Each structure stands twice: as structure tokens, then as C-alpha cells.
Amino acid sequence: MATIQWFPGHMAKAKREVQEKLKWIDVAFELLDARVPMSSRNPMIDEILGQKPRLVLLNKADMADEAVTEQWIRYFREQGKTAIAIDAQSGTGVRQLAAAAKEMVKDKFAKMRAKGIKNPRPVRALIVGIPNVGKSTLINRLAGRHIAKTGDKPGVTKAQQWIKVGKEMELLDTPGILWPKFEDEDVGYKLAVTGAIKDEILNGQDVAVYALRFLSAHYPERLLSRYDLDDIPADIIALFEAIGRRRGCLTAGGGVDYDKVAEIVLSDIRTEKLGRLSFEAPALRT
Ligand SMILES: Nc1nc2c(ncn2[C@@H]2O[C@H](COP(=O)(O)OP(=O)(O)OP(=O)(O)O)[C@@H](O)[C@H]2O)c(=O)[nH]1
User: Are 17 and 152 part of one and the same domain?
Assistant: First the structure.
């Protein structure tokens, strides 16, 4: 996981770096976490990408609530954007990308053909996203076993390398890393719950409180069955204690070890012990 300090100067540099790369590409792949598509967005992405055609990729869809991911796909479609659910780790959905990217730039390529270019080059794409959203995993997945860097192109900065993805697409090998919208406390918690920001940054108990409140409201049955509870106490301390007692998270004095409970809950969420979860839905923008 990248440890980037997002000072204003660093954000400006990241923005500049992405915009520099836009010159070389036809389409940007905006990689989001399917469990938190709004919170895992860069707050300036529209300004940064400008008019560049964009494909929204809801990654880690394997961990997200399928019904909610469907809602997000519709939500983006209503905004005139194409969104595709993928799992970069296993490769599910990834095969659609080249065709979808080609579709987005068909007018541009038709114009190239009209100008007499018979065989337009492959579609060129760039992956952009916040840290830990799966950029490297997707690049490796697209590159597959046939990782073939096509080398420097005339006029392209030396550092820009292209990865061939079949015959139809080329991908810049370095993704655009952008910052999340971390000034919003809710966003910070959602990114922490899903593991996008490191546990040392926010207090684990606070993150677990956030997660348990969310799960109590939206996935109560999962809590009941996972922790073998009779009911879900409305009081968050009582809920910590009920889980702690069930799990034997006790201190030497016999009290509940709140840190341990927080650790178990967050680990259960991240390892899918509580099933597939989405922490944001277009209908319930909590
Ligand atoms: N379950 C699941 N895990 C994924 C998926 N894609 C990526 N991951 C995991 O998410 C973590 C982060 O993935 P990376 O590819 O390193 O993310 P990145 O965006 O390149 O991260 P930075 O280098 O920090 O910018 C890794 O542990 C991956 O294995 C996915 O589709 N499903």
C-alpha cells in the first residue's frame, strides 16, 4: 500500500502528472472501490479528466453487495457514464474492458479512418484511482502472462511504457495515483473500514463503531448470525460487549477488551466473514 502524504503540493503534482499522461491516451479507466464508489473517488476527477472519455470500473465487486453494485451501475448510466463491475484479482469482468474502451472512442477512430488511416492503432488507456483501489492488480491482470512492453514511442516521454492488452488495447504501465476526499469524516471511516487507508491513521475502535452502526442499520441479520446474538443492542457499547463476550475478548480483570472486539469486527469485514458488503448505495447515501 502506498504511503503518500497528500499535502497540497503533492496533490497539485499528482494532478499535473495525470494530466500530462492524458495527452497519450484515448480513454481513462476511473477505478473505484465497488463497496464505496463515492468515497473512493478523487474529489477533482471531473476537472482533472476534463473531456477525456472515461470508463468507470467498480473494482473489488467480489466483496461488494451485488444488488447495490447493480444500483451503482444504473446510477452512473443515468449520469451518462458507462460503469462495469470487475474483480481485478480473479479477472472477473476484466475481459470486457478492451471492447468497452473501443466503443467509447469509436467516433474518434471513425474520423481517423475517414482521414485515410486504414488500421487505427490500438485504443490507449490509463488507469487512475486512489491508493489501494487495485490499480496494480488490474494492470497485472490485463497484462496477463503476455506482459509485453511495447517500448518507447517517438514523442512519448521515456518513462511512458505501454503494455499490450491483446491486439485492441494498450495500457500505460504506470497508473495515475490520486488522492481521496479525506476531509470528510464519513469518507475517512468508509475508506478505513474497507482497508483503503491504513489502520494507524484512524482509531480502530472508532472505525469499528462506525462499521457496527452501519451494519446494525443495513445488515443486521449478518451481525446476528456471525456473532450469535439474540438481538442487536441499540447502545453501541452494549453491542461491543455482546460481541466481546461471545468471542471471549476479555481483559485480565474480566471486562471486555474493546480493542480486540474492534480488531475482530474489522478483520471479519475485510475477510468477508460477514459476507459481501457495500457501505454506500445511491439510494442510501449515508
Ligand atoms: N477481493 C479483491 N481484492 C482486490 C481486487 N483488486 C485488488 N485487490 C486487493 O487490493 C489490494 C490493493 O491492490 P493494489 O493493486 O496494490 O492497489 P493499488 O491501487 O495499485 O495501490 P497503490 O499502489 O497503493 O496505489 C491488494 O491486496 C489486492 O490484492 C479485487 O478485485 N478483489
Answer: yes
